[in-house]
Design goal:
This protein has helices at residues 3-21, 115-125, 129-141, 200-214, 221-227, 276-279, 316-328, 342-372, and strands at 30-34, 45-51, 57-62, 71-76, 87-90, 95-100, 149-154, 160-165, 170-174, 182-185, 233-234, 239-240, 248-250, 261-268, 281-286, 294-297, 308-309, 314-315, 339-341. By secondary structure, the chain is α+β, with helices and mostly antiparallel strands.
Length: 373
């Protein structure tokens, strides 16, 4: 089926949904892609620490059809038909994520925030980074795409890139051309110039935290979910504020964890020669990541705690973690910004990390068993 028709149909659905709900608010995220050459286990990784006005998420699987591939992805609760994916991978081992960008060309489309629809279309159709570039070109030929985003993509061939994408144009930044074999994006695009760089401190926080493990080839999924998504390091201050003993911090959007943080997800690719459909793993810390734990998602296995439940389509674990989030952000301060209760987070994070450690062990053991078969 023609990709432009599929995407157009999905976008029309989005128009109706946005009209009914009064508009969808774009989020601000922190993300990275690292080559298997700098990873401990030799597997390429894609990480998205999601910030969104949608605090309730679930993980679901969209089955294959005669013309599309099966995929698993993170969705907003209430998206019962799983129309808008926010990070995921398909049976070919192709994976995609996004961060909103606020310094590209001004929006020209009547309907905006179509990133989730574009990613769903890509997961249905794309097998490679090149396929995604071709999809963007075809869709842009039909008119404004309705996105302002940095799309991160990886494939089972070992290729990866960020596509800094606006309504009518995109710039591609391949991982293979980056000497450090590392790419990071927050909420601005490198191609958008030197001004209006929203999220620059978070971008620099991420670069600093990854660099500490880069030279020793010790980067693992835990680097992202267990360290970076729980870290209150501030590049401008040159220190981890959590380790300074502060009881309260102000959420100004400059730490990677924020009140709007609703998931931390790492997609770890298959190794060369492995079956991508069975050995690609999506490690998901759903809800406010600093107070959550990881669950391992594969194409044929989604933990029940991540699946949507009636009647609102919430996942059980996300609801549980969001109750902790309320305790972590008890009130607003004099500036009108949320305060972070660091004493509370310091009390719950060790237990969450212990659970993650066990989940990582179980998930890797399952993957190893699949490799043997």
């Amino acid at each position: 089926m023609d990709s432009r028709w599929l995407l157009t149909k999905a976008l029309l659905v989005c128009v109706a949904v946005q009209w009914l709900l009064g508009g969808i608010h774009a989020g601000a995220c922190t993300s990275a892609i690292v080559s298997g050459n700098v990873a401990r286990d030799g597997r390429m990784m894609m990480w998205k620490h999601r910030d969104s006005g949608h605090p309730d998420n679930f993980v679901g699987k969209v089955e294959a059809t005669d013309s599309t591939m099966a995929y698993v992805a993170l969705f907003n609760a209430g998206d019962t038909e799983m129309k808008e994916a926010w990070i995921g991978f398909n049976s070919a081992g192709f994976a995609i994520m996004n961060t909103a960008s606020y310094n590209l060309a001004p929006d020209t489309a009547a309907v905006k925030d179509r990133e989730g629809l574009v990613m769903s279309a890509a997961l249905r159709q794309c097998r490679s980074v090149a396929d995604f570039a071709a999809l963007l070109e075809r869709c842009m030929a039909d008119g404004a795409l309705g996105v302002q985003a940095n799309f991160g993509v990886t494939d089972s061939n070992g290729d990866a890139a960020y596509f800094e994408t606006s309504d009518h144009d995109f710039s591609c930044f391949p991982l293979s051309k980056e000497p450090t074999r590392l790419l990071v994006r927050s909420n601005y695009s490198y191609s958008g110039g030197e001004t209006d760089r929203l999220g620059e401190v978070r971008h620099d926080n991420a670069l600093h935290l990854i660099a500490e493990s880069l030279g020793r080839k010790m980067i693992t999924p835990e680097t992202f979910t267990e360290r970076m998504s729980r870290s209150f390091y501030h590049h401008g201050h040159g220190m981890d504020m959590a380790r300074r003993g502060f009881r309260l911090l102000t959420d100004r959007g400059e730490y990677i964890p924020r009140r709007s943080s609703c998931a931390s997800v790492v997609i770890e690719s298959a190794l060369p020669g492995e079956d991508a459909a069975s050995t690609t793993v999506m490690w998901v810390a759903i809800g406010f990541p600093a107070a959550s734990h990881v669950e391992a998602v594969t194409l044929d296995s989604i933990p029940p705690s991540l699946l949507p439940t009636a009647p609102r389509g919430h996942s059980r674990l996300c609801d549980e973690v969001n109750r902790r989030r309320q305790k972590a952000f008890p009130r607003k301060g004099k500036e009108g910004k949320w305060l972070v209760d660091m004493d509370y987070l310091r009390s719950v994070m060790p237990e969450c990390m212990e659970v993650s450690e066990e989940k990582y062990r179980e998930g890797r053991n399952r993957r190893d068993r699949k490799r043997c078969h």
